[in-house]
Amino acid sequence: MSEPVNKRPIGVFDSGLGGLTVLKAVMARLPHEDTIYFGDSGRAPYGSKSADTVTKFSLQNARFLLEQQVKMIIIACNTASSRAFDAVSQSAGLPVIEVIGPGARAAAQATRNRRIGVIGTRGTVDSQVYPAAIRRCLDGPADIYQQACPLFVSLAEEGWWDRPVTYDIARIYLEPLLERGIDTLVLGCTHYPLLSGVIAAAAGPDVRLVNAGAPIAGIVAQTLERTGLINDSRLPGKHVYFTSDSVEQFKTLGSAFLDEPVEQAYRIDIERY
What we know:
Layout: E1 10-14, H1 20-29, E2 35-39, H2 51-67, E3 72-75, H3 78-92, E4 96-97, H4 100-110, E5 115-120, H5 122-127, H6 129-137, E6 143-148, H7 151-158, H8 164-179, E7 184-187, H9 196-203, E8 208-210, H10 213-227, E9 239-243, H11 247-258, E10 265-267
Parallel strand pairs: 1-2, 1-3, 2-9, 3-4, 5-6, 5-7, 7-8, 9-10
Helix pairs in contact: 1-10, 2-3, 4-6, 8-9
């Protein structure tokens, strides 16, 4: 007898560890949901790759999750959301959640002077998806400034979340945005909340950081309720992790960030998909 669809896990994929910032928010909002997470650290970063390559990788990631019988897919990567959301949505046959819209709405609500900064990978910045999404959420004009921060993903994947060198790099990246007088800064890559301490220190107390984790979790909850896919179990959710790179590295850094042991973690050959 097959498992009821609402009892199936939520699938989450990212280019590496960054999507754990989304998963953590989902786990807090929906503690009874099972999840399956895939971090493609072996092919990271996505932000420097072409749109065609990101789409190819994203479809492979989605096919892996579909093989695990998930009921929903969260694209917990801004680059993949900006490049491959339509392709994944059209092929998946189940609800697919992207991470850009919730972050854009949160930025529009947070800003006071309508001068908003966006930091992200080269791919996300070049796509111009955030300025378009933020403007759709605002009435009237706004000044939106973007800055690609390609080193941040590598620093996050290495676990250099609060090193002095990370602060120095953040200060250099943010200087052009701060000179523009921004009062809100969108962390336009799910890896960046791992570095939020040094980013906040470099930005200063007058700049609000926007981490879309909680808003994304809210969208996930609403979608599950609307589609009748919410898990009505009272048992704690089970969480399984997969990576295309080092399992030990994933366990060590993932456990440190999630504040709970990452026990069920496995390496897969994602190219098979």
